Amino acid sequence: MNTTVIAIVVILVLVGIGVGIYFAVRGDSNNVTISYGANFSVTYGSQRDLDLWGDHMKTATTRWSNVLDETTVIEIYVYTYSGDSGVLAYAGPTSTTNLKGGGQIRFNENANRTTSNFDQVAAHEIGHVLGLGLNVGWTNYIVTVGGNKYLDKTHFVDAYNFYVGTPEYFSSGDTNGIPLTSGEGHFSETVFDKELMTSHAEGYSESHPLTKLTLFVLQRMGWSVNLTNAEDP
Length: 233
What we know:
Blueprint: E1 9-12, E2 25-27, E3 32-36, E4 40-44, H1 47-65, E5 74-81, E6 87-93, E7 103-108, H2 118-129, H3 136-139, E8 142-145, E9 148-151, H4 157-165, E10 178-179, H5 189-192, H6 212-221
Parallel strand pairs: 4-5, 5-7
Antiparallel strand pairs: 1-6, 2-3, 3-4, 6-7, 8-9, 9-10
Helix pairs in contact: 1-2, 4-6
C-alpha cells in the first residue's frame, strides 16, 4: 500500500550502518507489515526494504514509544531510493493537517552506511512523520524576525522556557523565539547542535538526544508525551 506524502524534509549526511531484523510479519508478495510495540505499524515496500532498514526502524520506534504516552497506532511506510550520497533520507506525513495520520520514510541506499548512524536517522525521520517541521501545528506558528525563523515562544511556551532555562545545554537564549533553520523544518543546528530534530547528522558514535525541547513542542501540537523519559541534551 502506498501513501501520498504532502511534504518532505531532508536530513543531510555528515557521517550510516544497518541490517534488518523483524518479527510479527504479515503482508503480501510486495509489502511486509510489522507491528513494533503498541504505537507503530511499519509497512515496508518490499522484503529488501525490510532487510535494509528493519533493524533501524525497530530501534527508532522503541525509542519513540518510550516517550509517547499514546494509544494511537502510527502507520509508517518505508521505501528505498537511490539518490545523492550526501542525503541520508527524507520523510513526511500523509497529511499536514492530520497530526496522527502517519506517513512515509524513504532511505537513500547510496548513503555511506559505515559512517552514518541510521538508528539516529530513522528516529529523526519518525519525528517528521509525527508532524515536526511539517504539520500545521508547527508551520502555523513560525515567525520571522530580522530575516531569521523561529517557533513562536508564546505558543510553544514550555519548549521556549526549556530552551532559555538550560544555557548549559544550548548556545544562546534568543528572545525572539525558538531558533529554526532557514528551511523552517528543523531546530537550528547552530543553537541546538546534536538535538535529534536539528538538520544534520553527526558522527556515527555521536548521540542525538530526543530532549524535552522536542517533546514540549509535540505536546503543544497535540501528542501525549512522557516527559520523564526525555533524553538529556
